Amino acid sequence: MTAARIERDSERLRVLAIPYVKPEDAGRGEYETLDPAPAMDFFDLDPAQADLIEAFVPHAVENEDAGYRDNATKSISPLDRLEDLTLPKLDDVAGGIERYMDAKERAAELDEKIERTDALINEIVYELYGLTDEEIEIVEEAVEE
Fold this sequence. Notes:
alpha+beta
């Protein structure tokens, strides 16, 4: 399986391919994910076009949809498969894309609130148990693993 990620700023939208390889010593079904690699750059897109690509491409890659197929070989690279994607017509999905982008923005805001709430809960618990900075560091390192 491969994945795609989108990087976007005011001037450019970049599609990054996240390929995988099977290490020589790997067992059946074991793959290693490589670092994302730039696959395509788009310039001068209007916001609706950029929203469509940002929402659609990662979904199509993950679900092997819209012409993207997960049959990489030495001759069919992730880039070749990305180029085979067929985007839907913007007019056909405009309302859905707008709802998706709104939901994505709300989800990001909720994720930030959850992180702040988790940090506050941690502080309260550390204070209740009277943990020292050293003990807090041990707890946080253990939780990260």
